[in-house]
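::Encoded backbone::
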Amino acid sequence: MKRSKILILLLTMTLCLPGCGSKTETAQMQQTLKQEGMQLQASGDYAGAIAKYEEALKLADMKVGEEEIDIAYYKASAQYRSGDLTGAIDTYSAILAVKESENSYLSRGLLYVAAKDAQKAEADLNKVLKETKKPLIQGIIYNAVNQTEKAKECFEKAKKDGEADAVFYLANIYEKAGDHNYAMILLEEYIESGKAGAEGYLSVGRHYYDAGSYEDALAMLQEGIALGESGVLKSLLQEEIACYEKLGDFSVARDKAKAYLEKYPDDELIKREYEFLKSR
């Protein structure tokens, strides 16, 4: 879609049609705002990111294409991460009014689950279940509505199909069931797949931390941090500070807390932690 629009613009430029330059400038400005929003979102500034996405969407002038839908997805993600479930649900509803998709119904359904709106969650998730043939998606839905055995069965099928994320979901199921050893084996398998990403490293790091394996936790967290800006970088840095404290390395924890506050100066929890560390 985007490439075809660009091709049309290139073909019409030689005709000097009125407004083609301004359309190009608008598209470029919209893309710039989207990128700025993504950077803010990766740094944990969700309010700033949402503002950028909304500014970008306003440039569409009531015309909604693939690019506007993509920006709306990012906006919904930022709203969810900021804790605004209602806003995220509204954004997905707006997307669905323009273009229906499995991903949008699934995402909105999961948001309804989080918002404890069982009736609307059931409507969206059942719609996806009736249409999808993907074991991973089926497992995510069953897991969300606490049908654990069905979820496990679906994730096992997805795992056999080579879906790395299924391994992660299975690990969480076994962790909740109290089988910490097997959960850890699965998480290590997930990391070794090379598809974990920053969120995967954060989850594995937290599992190690909860098990009291602070050095292993720290190693996983730092792998995630090394990936650069991400939607969970803030959490990774928080957990890194906690690991250094547990390991008794208060000077490094203090330095990490100081650097963290330079990046996230409004975090009251880490402010208090930093004051505590300065006394150690």
